[in-house]
Amino acid sequence: MRFTVDPWDPSYGTSNELDPGDASRAQVDVDIEVPAAQWTPRRPQAARPAERLVFVDGVRRVEAHVWIDADDGGAHHGICASYAAGAVRCDGAAVCGPFIVRRGLFSAHEAVEAIPTAVGDFSARRAASASPEGLALALQERMGEAEIEAAALAVGAGDVDLVVLDGPLRGRQHLSGAIGYVKTHHVTYLPPELNAVIARLGPGERTPLFRLGTDWSRLSWYFRLAVARGSPWAGVVRGECSATIPVPGATALADVVTAALPPFASAPHKDSRAPQNLYPIAGLERELRHRLGDPQLLYRALRVAAAG
User: What is the pTM of this model?
Assistant: First the structure.
């Protein structure tokens, strides 16, 4: 397979965050735990605390944009990317691992082939679309698969009370005891009068559950990790769990999560994304980015492979 490496900086034209969904199409049911008229901040009920937690995260990086030469003289766009996933278990001590690191050439071209380089192969990965969004989505999906693999391996290593997946739960709803941890708010799902409840949350308090459906369904709630300066939503994150969990079970799970995560909240002098970027996730991100390797070395290896 003949290809050329685009000299354009690979950080341009790519997105670090994919669109979480079209809010205009979201179907929201706010009456599943209590009626909307009874929405107030809720303090978690007494329950067995989560003492054995596993935090799971993934990172990705575009190493180069490439153009694959077609037999008819045309060229097909693709991206060479690295992605990694891992877990950290916290049960009185923090134990990191497993770690999964992979590389791929993502393209919609039907004849895409792997690219061997001196620092490892970029496996052929077909994307549904050649658009920048389509290639980014294909990379995101592969990273999600690695996160599922890392979570399964970590859970298999011993009893776990709670699995915290950084980001939305999409595609990972089947993992037992797993919740999605969403620390940024690109979309407002609730009506203004219920958003006001979020603003009144104290540290360790949550909203009632609501059912959220876009192109997939889940149960969700907002909770505040800690007091933070800034907007009324400062220090607020959103949890997600599978919509197949009965409401009483989801209510108990939301209470466990809301009580368990505030001790892991980061401090502003240590993390610019404090308090939402939990310490275990921040440490895991650093380790995973280190394991992706030197981007300059990978870029040079791709240039050499293209010239070979």
Answer: 0.89
What pLDDT is recorded for position 31? 96
What is the tens place of the pLDDT at every residue in 19-77?
444 454 678 999 999 999 999 999 998 777 888 999 999 999 999 999 998 776 678 99
Backbone angles phi, psi at 237, to 5 degrees: -130, 170
Dig out the tokens for 91 from the structure: 């049960």
The Cα–Cα gap between 264 and 84 comes to: 23
8 Å CB contact between 149 and 100: yes
* Exposed/middle/buried for residue 139 (C-beta within 10 Å: 0-12, 13-18, 19+): buried
What are the phi and psi torsion angles at 189 (to 5°)? -95, -25
**What is the DSSP-derived secondary structure letter of residue 42?**
B
Burial class of residue 287 in the structure, from the number of CB atoms within 10 Å of its CB (0-12 exposed, 13-18 middle, 19+ buried): middle
Q: Which residues pair with 99 in a beta bridge?
A: 86
Alpha-carbon span 284 to 226, nearest angstrom? 21
For the CA atoms of 35, 167, 14, 125, what is the dihedral angle to 10 degrees?
-120
Taking the CA atoms of 269, 271, 273 and 275 in sequence, report the sign of the dihedral they define: negative
CA distance 240 to 212: 9
Q: Kindly provide the residue ranges of all beta strands, DSSP E only, lying in the chain, ordered along the sequence.
A: 3-5, 27-29, 53-69, 75-90, 94-107, 115-117, 120-126, 162-166, 178-182, 210-213, 217-224, 236-242
201 in Cβ contact with 177 (< 8 Å):
no
Domain layout of the chain by residue ranges: 3-13+23-307
Q: Which residues pair with 251 in a beta bridge?
A: none
Q: List pLDDT tens digits, range 108-163.
A: 998 899 999 999 999 999 999 999 999 999 999 999 999 999 999 988 877 889 99
Measured CA to CA, the distance from residue 302 to residue 300 in angstroms comes to 5
Residue for token pair 């294909």: 138
Q: Are strands 236-242 and 115-117 parallel, antiparallel or unpaired?
A: unpaired
